[in-house]
Design brief:
This protein is an alpha/beta fold. The protein is 18% helix and 41% strand. It has two helices and six strands. Strands 1-2-3-4-6-5 form a six-stranded mixed sheet. It is globular.
């Protein structure tokens, strides 16, 4: 719900990505505005690591309009997972 509100405030489109062929890939949410995309993954875990951002890394390598990513998770710290990819706790949304 918070992502939908943010996307409306920013006048951004909200969508998702799922591939139909192996290797199967999925991005929970894609927020797009002015031909720039932000990939968003949501994890239930209280911990987060680079492996939680693999789909975002893939999306950024395949789509030049994907400029960064966010992993939303159940922890307490904001963490840098990779170049242009951060992890943010749900409680900070």
């Amino acid at each position: 719900m918070a992502l939908q509100v943010v996307s409306e405030l920013w006048m951004a489109q909200l969508s998702f990505v799922r591939t139909r062929e192996a290797p199967y890939r999925e991005i929970d949410f894609i927020m797009e505005r002015d031909r720039r995309r932000l990939a968003i993954e949501v994890k239930l875990s209280h911990s987060v690591s680079y492996t939680d951002a693999r789909s975002i890394v893939w999306m950024m390598s395949e789509d030049s309009q994907c400029v960064g990513g966010v992993v939303i998770y159940g922890g307490t710290d904001i963490r840098l997972l990779a170049d242009h990819i951060i992890a943010v706790p749900w409680s900070m949304l």
